[in-house]
Design brief:
Length: about 140
């Protein structure tokens, strides 16, 4: 979905709902993410923190893992929307950017929002222009 406002209208409520399931006792930041595939199927995930911070799981990667677990083929999702509390607009971390670059479509749109009107968006290639790939 290339129309950012239409994507927000379609996905915002589900990402916000996913954020309500977040386990975030350390940062207090509740993050939800949803992935939209080319067939219109939506997959969601939330952040799951851990006292050993490196083991924390980001909402974006959890949503992508849920999509793959449900049978989504890599390269078939064209939109990922992130909703976060505690931040104005949260850009994805480097690990999420790498996973996105491998699992999303080459022209995927990433949207991050704090509300339906306070958002930023990027094409995946702008977030990670030289992703690591095995040839």
């Amino acid at each position: 979905m290339r129309d950012t406002k239409a994507a927000i209208e379609k996905l915002y409520a589900q990402a916000k709902s996913a954020s309500e399931n977040a386990y975030s006792p350390y940062s207090g930041a509740r993050v939800g993410a949803v992935v939209l595939d080319q067939d219109g199927v939506i997959y969601s995930g939330c952040n799951v923190e851990n006292a050993s911070y490196g083991l924390t799981q980001c909402a974006e990667r959890n949503a992508l893992a849920a999509a793959v677990s449900a049978g989504m083929k890599p390269g078939t999702a064209d939109t990922l929307l992130i909703y976060a509390t505690g931040f104005e607009v949260l850009a994805p971390c480097g690990a999420c950017r790498q996973v996105m670059s491998e699992l999303l479509a080459d022209n995927a749109l990433i949207i991050s929002c704090h509300s339906e009107t306070d958002f930023d968006s990027w094409p995946i290639g702008e977030l990670l222009p030289h992703s690591f790939v095995l040839s």
